[in-house]
Structures are given as structure tokens and as C-alpha cells.
């Protein structure tokens, strides 16, 4: 089985490149299941029900989020009906709304997809990712209780060290650990024993941008400390993703491959 994970989709240009490329990539890599991080899909911050539905209609099977999960409050009206949406399990905001993990049956294997936030350089996270996931794996014993074959974690975090520590701490217990949030793809994809890992998958969003945001506006905000609106950059997008190969018989992760397509 091959799982495609698509990094943070940022705004209109990010959505467009996913709509345009997904079919081709699914065929090329023989993809069985698609997960995408959609925390920036609605104008750079948050997601709406309409965009959630559009992403599913174009071939995404599961959508994870991050610190911007609830930047568009509209999503909260429907969140209990959005079966393919996974919110960060340890984000303090709206902590009782939505689900921090969801299960999917694919090719006879039951996959648990978990979204968790790092708490280094991040706001609104009072339970560490280690504590949150330890509870799921070792107290709730979700793998045994819910008969999971594969556990897939999107750790949405700023600090590379925190993500690498997370992957090493949970190696062999979690099949796949992918980092998101920085919007810049790292070249460190590897197997850590039986766990596929990458520090950050990178983004799908405007190539000429500051991690998806308008360049001039980012300079105004960072260099001159001027108050700005949040303007998403426009133009041709970069596409960033990884493909994880899982052996259907042994249920072991075999390989992780990076995809980066620049305009
Ligand atoms: Fe993001
Ligand atoms: Fe983020």
C-alpha cells in the first residue's frame, strides 16, 4: 500500500496545484490513500466546509490541521459531521470539538491518523505531544483496542529537534511520523528502524512567497513592525508531499520518498 501525504495547502494557489496534480501523482505512485494538511487552505488560515468538500472531491481521503485549525469559525458548525477531518489532539482551543484521531479502512488495513501539535515555540498547547500520544498508545492502548494495523502521525511543530525526538521516542510504535507547519520541505526523509520519518513535508502554495504569505507584506511586518492584514501570496505554486510504502502482508513500513514539484 502507498500513502500520499501532502504538506500544508496554502490558499488558492495551493488548492489549485493539488486539484491539478493529484490525479497524475496518484497514478504515477500507485497511491491507495491520500492525507493532506489543510490548516492553511482557506486564505492562508484555517479551513471551511466548502474547501473540505472540494479537497475530498478531488481525491483527498483525510485532512489534518494545525495551529490554524479554527481560524475560520465556520468549520465548527459542521465539525462533528466531517468524518475525514482530524484536528490537533492537544490544541487547547476548542479542545472538545472534532476528533484528534480518525480511522480509515484501506485495502484491508485499518489506519489510524493522528494529528498532534509540538509545544516548542507554539502557542495554545499545554499538553506536550509526548504526553498526548503516550496516553493514546499506552493508556488507551488504541492499537489493540481498535485493532489498528497502521498508526500515522502528523506532528505539527516548529522545532526540528522536537519532531526528531518525537519520532525516536515512538519509533516502532508509530508506523509513520511526518512533520508539518514550517512550510519548508526538509531533505531528511528516512526510516528510523520501522518508522518512516521526515521533519517537514513542506507546503503547497505560492512559490514566490514567504512560506505562502505575500513577500512585501511579510517585510513590512517583520522588518518595519507595521501592522498588516494577512495577505496570501498569489502565483504558481510549489507542490510538496511524501509517499510512504507499507507492506500489506507484514504491515511494516518499508520506505518514504519525497516529492517536490516547483513551477
Ligand atoms: Fe501551515
Ligand atoms: Fe501551522
Structure description:
With 263 residues, the chain is α/β, with parallel strands linked by helices. It has a single domain, classed as Purple Acid Phosphatase, chain A, domain 2, CATH 3.60.21.10. It is 25% helix and 27% strand. It has seven helices and 13 strands. It has helices at residues 11-28, 49-57, 74-78, 129-139, 142-145, 160-169, 215-222; strands at residues 2-6, 33-37, 62-64, 85-86, 101-106, 109-117, 150-156, 176-180, 190-192, 195-198, 205-206, 237-246, 253-261. Strands 1, 2, 3, 4, 11, 12 and 13 form a seven-stranded mixed β-sheet that branches. A six-stranded mixed β-sheet has the order 5-6-7-8-10-9, covered by helices on one side. It is globular and about 50 Å long. One fe (ii) ion (FE2) is lined by residues 39, 66-68, 156, 181.
Amino acid at each position: 500500500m502507498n500513502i500520499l501525504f501532502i504538506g500544508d495547502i496554502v490558499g488558492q494557489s495551493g488548492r489549485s496545484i493539488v486539484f491539478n496534480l493529484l490525479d497524475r501523482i496518484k497514478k504515477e505512485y500507485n497511491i491507495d490513500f491520500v492525507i493532506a494538511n489543510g490548516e492553511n487552505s482557506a486564505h492562508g488560515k484555517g479551513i471551511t466546509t466548502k474547501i473540505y468538500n472540494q479537497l475530498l472531491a478531488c481525491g483527498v481521503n483525510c485532512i489534518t490541521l494545525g495551529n490554524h485549525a479554527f481560524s475560520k469559525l465556520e468549520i465548527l458548525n459542521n465539525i462533528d459531521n466531517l468524518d475525514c477531518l482530524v484536528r490537533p489532539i492537544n490544541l487547547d482551543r476548542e479542545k472538545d470539538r472534532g476528533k484528534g484521531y480518525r480511522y480509515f479502512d484501506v485495502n484491508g488495513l485499518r489506519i489510524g491518523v493522528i494529528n498532534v501539535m509540538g509545544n516548542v515555540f507554539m502557542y495554545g498547547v499545554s499538553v506536550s505531544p509526548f504526553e498526548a500520544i503516550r496516553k493514546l498508545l499506552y493508556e488507551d492502548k488504541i492499537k489493540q483496542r481498535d485493532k489498528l494495523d497502521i498508526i500515522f502521525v502528523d506532528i505539527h511543530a516548529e522545532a526540528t529537534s522536537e519532531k526528531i525526538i518525537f519520532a525516536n521516542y515512538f519509533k516502532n510504535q508509530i508506523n509513520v511520523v511526518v512533520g508539518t507547519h514550517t512550510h519548508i520541505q526538509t531533505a531528511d526523509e528516512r526510516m528510523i528502524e520501522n518508522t518512516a520519518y521526515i521533519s517537514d513535508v513542506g507546503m503547497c502554495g505560492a512559490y514566490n512567497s514567504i512560506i505562502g504569505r505575500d513577500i512585501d507584506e511579510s517585510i513590512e511586518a517583520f522588518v518595519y513592525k507595521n501592522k498588516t492584514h494577512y495577505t496570501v501570496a498569489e502565483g504558481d505554486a510549489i507542490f510538496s508531499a511524501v509517499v510512504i510504502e507499507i507492506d500489506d502482508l507484514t504491515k511494516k513500513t518499508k520506505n518514504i520518498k519525497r516529492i517536490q514539484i516547483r513551477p
